[in-house]
């Protein structure tokens, strides 16, 4: 019998799945300083209880999936900025990100509404650009000498550390570069094949990829969304969804329309709140005609979105509005 991974099981059980919202900006709202190279990963080291609290609140507010606080926790970044002497400690911090989210899920589901599908924990693997700290996660402006193997090596340690826990799925997030997408596909397929050959392996785990785009047609590096879809379409055994995150709210529907045109996979979407972020000043500003997640979300669903949530500057209250609008639609 073919093993069914948890993400596929949840997709089969609900038409619309509610994803959580921001971690880093929510920690800021709670008084934590995340203005450093490690972003919310620094709180994993210094204040892990706060990470747990955010995960728990998202589940309490209707999320079906929470994403670990490992977006910025690349091995290389932890070694350079986390006051760690070796890779073993860095791997421990990454595993902690999963364990905190899993504990929040398990604690909440002891008292959850009967019949509500058990929530999932997705392990966040952020892009190489997030490690650079230059805003390159939005542009894909990487060192041109970087090879596919270099990018695979960069992502490997964090991916393996997450998979060493009871994680339910992997979220490759904010990917702005087609070359990086190729590296991720190669790496995850290789790791999945290795796990399938291991008689002591944990259960099957699948992934989604969410892209970082500059408009409704192109990734941050100028590669086409069409090309990204065609690549993922060839590897649906391990990749169960493709989508977009950390994008301006008002272009979301158009991006999804492009994705929906080139793939039949369920789409995942979690845009920013509607405010604009300046990667140079690291500050947010709100436009006068700012829309809302729940107000825009019907258009996402019409264009193939199945997993919906929020990214930067979204909070549990925003996710609760999505849950009330769509979360019980099964």
How would you describe this protein?
By secondary structure, the chain is α/β, with parallel strands linked by helices. It has helices at residues 6-13, 24-29, 41-46, 48-60, 75-81, 87-109, 128-132, 136-139, 148-163, 178-197, 225-233, 252-262, 293-302, 316-327; strands spanning 17-18, 65-67, 120-125, 169-175, 206-211, 239-245, 267-270, 276-278, 283-285, 305-308. The chain has a single domain (6-327), classed as TIM Barrel. The protein is built from 14 helices and 10 strands. Strand 8 and strand 9 (283-285) form a beta hairpin. Helix 6 (87-109) crosses helix 9 and helix 12 (252-262) packs parallel to helix 13 (293-302). The chain is globular and about 45 Å long. 52% of the residues are buried. The model has no long low-confidence stretch (mean pLDDT 91).
């Amino acid at each position: 019998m073919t093993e069914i991974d948890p993400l596929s099981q949840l997709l089969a059980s609900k038409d619309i799945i509610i994803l959580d919202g921001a971690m880093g900006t929510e920690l800021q709202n709670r008084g934590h300083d995340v203005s450093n190279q490690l972003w919310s990963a620094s709180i994993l080291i210094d204040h892990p209880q706060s990470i747990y609290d955010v995960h728990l609140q998202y589940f309490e507010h209707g999320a079906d999936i929470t994403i670990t606080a490992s977006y910025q926790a690349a091995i290389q970044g932890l070694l350079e900025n986390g006051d760690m002497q070796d890779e073993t400690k860095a791997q421990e911090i990454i595993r902690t990100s999963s364990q905190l989210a899993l504990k929040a899920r398990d604690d909440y589901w002891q008292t959850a509404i009967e019949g509500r599908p058990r929530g999932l924990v997705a392990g966040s693997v952020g892009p190489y650009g997030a490690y650079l700290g230059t805003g390159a996660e939005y542009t894909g402006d990487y060192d041109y000498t970087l090879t596919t193997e270099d990018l695979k090596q960069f992502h490997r340690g964090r991916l393996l550390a997450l998979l060493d826990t009871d994680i339910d799925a992997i979220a490759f997030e904010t990917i702005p570069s087609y070359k990086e997408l190729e590296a991720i596909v190669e790496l995850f397929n290789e790791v999945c094949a290795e796990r399938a050959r291991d008689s002591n392996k944990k259960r099957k785990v699948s992934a989604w990829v969410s892209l970082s785009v500059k408009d409704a047609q192109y990734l941050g590096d100028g590669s086409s969304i069409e090309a990204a879809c065609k690549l993922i379409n060839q590897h649906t055994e391990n990749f169960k969804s493709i989508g977009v995150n950390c994008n301006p709210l008002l272009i979301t529907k158009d991006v999804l329309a492009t994705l929906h045109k080139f793939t039949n996979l369920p789409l995942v979407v979690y845009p920013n709140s509607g405010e604009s972020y300046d990667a140079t000043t690291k500050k947010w500003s709100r436009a006068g005609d700012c829309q809302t997640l729940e107000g825009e979300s019907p258009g996402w669903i019409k264009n193939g979105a199945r997993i919906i949530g929020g990214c930067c500057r979204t909070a549990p209250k925003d996710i609760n509005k999505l849950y009330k609008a769509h979360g019980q639609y099964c």
